[in-house]
């Protein structure tokens, strides 16, 4: 997979209304907060998300999808549909490889 797309799996979490790094961390439990912050920085660099930070205490940082980020959502939806349809066959193949 293209290295510019591979780490961008935070984009679907952002679309579900999750916009703060710690909220994304709660939604994607397998990823550390540090990894999420690194990936958000990459998304920001590539113009997929915008960063908004408040100046008031407590400081809040939020990320929102740009037009470019929103344009990839149909692809994520199709990947999700494919995964749902094929989860059992992929799981069975993974199990058989692990048992060998």
> Which CATH architecture?
Orthogonal Bundle
> Level of helix content?
55-70%
Number of strands: 2
Give the CATH level 1 class.
Answer: Mainly Alpha
Supply Rg.
16 Å
* Strand content range: 5-15%
* Head-to-tail CA distance between termini: 26 Å
Taken from the alpha-carbon principal axes, the silhouette is globular
Tally of domains: 1
Low-confidence residue ranges: 1-8
- CATH structural fold name: Arc Repressor Mutant, subunit A
Strand order of the largest sheet: 1-2
Corresponding CATH superfamily: Winged helix-like DNA-binding domain superfamily/Winged helix DNA-binding domain
Structural class: mainly alpha
Overall pLDDT confidence? 77
Q: Tally the helices.
A: 5
The SSE string, one letter per element, is HHHEEHH
- What characterizes the major β-sheet? 2 strands, antiparallel
What does this molecule look like?
The protein is mainly α. It has one domain (10-99): Arc Repressor Mutant, subunit A (Orthogonal Bundle). It is 58% helix and 10% strand. It is built from five helices and two strands, in the order αααββαα. The protein has a two-stranded antiparallel ribbon. A hairpin with a 7-residue loop joins strand 1 and strand 2. Helix 2 packs across helix 3 (33-45). It is globular, with a radius of gyration of 16 Å. The protein starts with 9 loop residues before the first helix and ends with a helix. The relative contact order is 0.14. Mean pLDDT is 77; it is low at 1-8. Keywords: DNA-binding, Transcription, Transcription regulation. This is HTH hxlR-type domain-containing protein. It comes from Dyadobacter beijingensis. Residues 1-91 form the HTH hxlR-type domain.
